[in-house]
Amino acid sequence: MNAEILHYRRREMLRLMAAVPVLLATNAGANPLPVIEVYKNPSCGCCGRWVQHLKSNGFIANINEAPDMSTIKARFRVPQDLASCHTAIIAGYVIEGHVPAHAIRRLLAERPQALGLAVPGMPVGSPGMEGSSHEAFDVFLFTSEGSKKVFEHYD
Asked: What homologous superfamily does CATH list for 36-154?
């Protein structure tokens, strides 16, 4: 091997070794996200796209195929007026419908006293429901007592 190639390889190795402490420091303070358990009907395409949205935002999702979603919603006490097509559980919270990853991250950071978050229905433009048009939608924070309030608004 000629000296020029050896010099190049040595220089590249030194450059990579110098980057290791920076990479370790960058990831050392990062809090890993808990796994999100997603319950969805096997034939629902938008649910799969919502899971892809979560994964592209750093979440790890376990998919649970559930042909009878009404049983799942009853089990996790999802209010009927907040229902959507899929239900998920993360860190003890219920996530109903097309909730953006940003709102879930905020929920996990703030840890409010609540049952979970919901985006009722299937608003066009929400994660998993992207299309040529877009409608404003709200993410609701809801409690086991039945109260709800807007947690985030998306235009």
From this structure: Glutaredoxin (3.40.30.10)
Domain ranges of the chain: 1-30, 36-154
Burial tier of 19 (Cβ tally within 10 Å: 0-12, 13-18, 19+): exposed
- Amino acid, single-letter form, for residue 149: K
Residue identified by tokens 């000296």 is: 3
- Segment 45-72, tens digit of pLDDT: 888 999 999 999 999 999 999 999 999 9
First-to-final CA distance of the chain: 61
Give the Cα separation of 38 and 89 in Å (integer): 7
**Contact of 86 with 39, CB cutoff 8 Å:** yes
Residue 125 CB coordination number (10 Å): 16
pLDDT in tens, 94-126: 999 999 999 999 999 999 999 999 999 999 999
SS3 of residue 120 by DSSP: coil
- Whole-angstrom distance, CA of residue 74 vs CA of residue 31: 31
Beta bridge partners of 97: 119
* Digit-coded pLDDT (tens) for 132-148: 889 999 999 999 998 99
> pTM of the predicted model, to two decimals?
0.79
